[in-house]
Amino acid sequence: MNQMVTPKFGVGAPLRRKEDQALITGKGIYTADYMPEGCLHGVVVRSAMAHAKISLENVDDIRAMDGVHLVLTGAELAGKIMPCQARPKQIDGSDFQAPDQPVLCSDEVRYVGDAIAFIVADDVNAAKNAAEMLEVDYDPLETVIGIENALAPEAVKVWPEFGSNVAFTYGQGDQAKADAAFAGAAKTVSIDVVNNRVVANYMELRGCVAEYSAETERFKLTLGTQGGHGVRGVICSILGLEQDRLQVITPEVGGGFGTKMFCYREYPLTMIAARELGRAVRWAGERMEHFVTDAHGRDNLSHAELALDGDNRIVGLKVHVKAAMGAYLHQFGPFIPFVGTSMTSGLYDIPAVFAKVEGVYMHTVPTDAFRGAGRPEAAYLIERLIDKAGEETGLGPIEIRKRNFIRPDQLPYTTQTGRMYDTGDFGGHLDKALEVADWAGFKARQQESASRGKYRGIGICSYIEACAFAGSEEATLELDANGSLTLLIGTQTNGQGHATAYSQVVAEEFGVTIEDVNVIQGDTDRVRKGGGTGGSRSIPIGLPSVREAGRTLVKKVKELAADRLEAGVEDLELDSGVVRVVGTDQQVTLAEIVAGAGETLSAAEEVKQTENTYPNGTHICEVEVDPETGDVDLVNYVIVDDFGVTVNPLLLAGQVHGGAASAISQALCEQTVYDDDGQLLTASLLDYRLLRAEDVPDIHFETRNVPSTTNAMGIKGAGEAGTIGGCAAVMNAVQMALKDGAGVTELLDMPATPLRVWEAIQAAK
Fold this sequence. Notes:
The chain has 19 helices and 30 strands. By secondary structure, the chain is α+β, with helices and mostly antiparallel strands.
C-alpha cells in the first residue's frame, strides 16, 4: 500500500498561518492604530427617523463652536452620489431606474441612519458634542417596513417618482417550458420560506483616515477593505478624480464577509474634509453605527414549487423571490438575488426551471453581499423544498435526493439557468456524510433522547455553489537583494491566511521557506491592479498566477545562474536560497544572482479563467430540542465537501468551520427587527443575538475532492461554502425534531430561537 507523503511546502501542505504570531501578540496594525500627527476627527450626523423631510437650523452656530473645524452638509455636496454598479437587465430586457443615494442628504431621509452632516473637530468627543448640538428639523413622512407591506397596492412609495416599490424584476430560465412541465406533472410540492435579514458584525468596525498633499495633489486613504483598487475606483467616480490621484492603503482587516467590499459615505467625506482643511481626518465607526449604516444581508421571501413525474423525478421548478433592497440600491445589491437564483436548481437534474426575482424598496438600511451573496439563499430554498418533497412522496430525505441528483456521467452539465457544473460526485459525498454521521443509528439515538423528554432530529443539505467567478488576478514576484522574495497581488486578506497560502507555492518553486516570502497586498501604489477578495476568488484565481510568476522567475534565475556556473539550465536545482548544479558543490546564492544581474529580477503573470468553479458538498446536522424551553442543542455536525484541490488543509478547515458557524448563527440566533416606524429595535449586541463560541458544535470536516476542470490548478473556492450548506441542514434537523416529537407540521422559519420553537410546540398541542 502506497503511503501519501505530505509535501513540506506547496499545494497540500498543512502549514500553520505565518501571519498569526503578530496578530495574537498585539503587533498587528489595523486602521484604528493609525493616527497621523495633527489628525482631526469626524462624526456623521445620522437620521433619527426612517422617513422625513429635513432642514438644518443652526449650522453656522456649530461651525463657530470651539474645536470644530468643518461642517459638511448636503448643500455643499450637491451632485455627489453613491453609485450602484449592479444593473442586470430586467425580465423584459429593459433597464431599471436606480434612485440617487446622496453622499449627504439635503432635504429628505429614507432610513434610520441615513447621513445628514459630517462634522470635523479636534477630537472625537468635540465632534460628538457638536453633532448633538446640531438641530435637525424633521417633518415626519409615512414609512413602509417589510416586503409584503411594501408590495401592497396602497403602500407608501419609497420613491414616488417610480410609481412602485418594485425596484426591478429579473427572470432566469424558461417560463413557458416550466409551465408545460407543471401542466403534465403527476405531483407538485410547494414551499414558502423566509431568509432572515442579518448584520455582518465583524470584529473590527469600519474606519478610515484621509490625508491630502497640496504639493502633489494626491490623497492617501487608509481603511479596512476587501480590495483597495475597487474602492478607489468608486471613490474617484464620486469625487471626479483620476485614479492615480488616490492611494488606498489597507492594513490588517478584522473580518469582511462581503460587507467591507463596498465604498461607504465616510470615505469620500473624510477625503473632502482632508483636502479642505489641509490636515488628516479620521473617522472611526462604532458598533451601533455598524447596525444602521453598513449594508445588511439576505432578507428574502421566497416561494418555490417542484413538479414531479410518476416516478418522483423532478420535471420542473418554479421560484419567486422577493428580495429586500432597503431604501436605496446599494453598490452590488441588485446583483445578489440575480446570482442566487442562477443557482436555484441546486444539485438536481431539472429539465425545466423558471426563477423570478422582484427587488423591493422599503425604509431600511440597504442590503448587499454577505458571505455567500445569494447562493446561501438559493441552497436554503431548494434544500428545504427537497426535504418537503421527500416527506410528501414518502421517499424520505435521502432517496428523493439520490433519485434526482445530476449523475457523474452527465457532467459537465449546464443547468436551465446557464450554470455549467464541470465535475463532482454528488451522491458520493452524501453517502460519505451519511456514514460518518451514522444516519443508520439515528432512530436509536432519537429514542434515547425521547426517554429523557427531548426531541431529536437530523437534517441534510447537499449544496452546490458558483464562486471564483471567471476572471484573473495579476501576480508580480520580485527577487530581493538579500535573496528573499516579495509577492505583490491585488487580492486582500481579511482573515483567510493569504500570506501563508501564497507563500507555500512560491516556497515550493524556489526551494525556500514560507518565511522567506513577503506578501504585499493593500497598497494601490505598490500593487498595479487587483480584483480584491470576494466570491471565494483569492486562492483559486490568484494562486495560478502566483505559480506561473514563480516559474517564470525561476527560469530567469536559472538562466543567470547557468552562465555563472557554466552549466546547463536543466542541470540546476534551487534549494535553501541557492542555485546548485545537481550532484555537485557548485552553487550560487540567490542574493549573488541579484547582485550580478544589475537590475531588479521580477516576473508578472496573469492566468485568466473563463468559467466559474463549483464547490459542492453535504452537511448533516443532528439536534436535540428541549420542549420545555425551546432550546436547540447541536449534538453532531458533519461536513463532506468537494473543493477540487486542497491547498492547505488547516486553512481550509478554518474557512469551513467559520462559514458553518455563520450559518448556524443565522439559523438559530440572528434576528433583525424593525418596528412599523422604521426604528431598528435590534441595533446593538444587547438585542441582536450572535452565535457564541460555546454554541459551536464539534464539526467533523473532510473532503472528497474531484479536481475542477475550469481552474488551472483544479481548485474550487471554499471561503463561503460553510455558510451555503449550513442553514438548511440545521433547519431540516429542527423541523424533523419538532415533527417527530410534537407533531409540528407548520414550516418553521429562521431563526429557530427558543421562543419560536416553544411556540411551535405549543401550537401543535
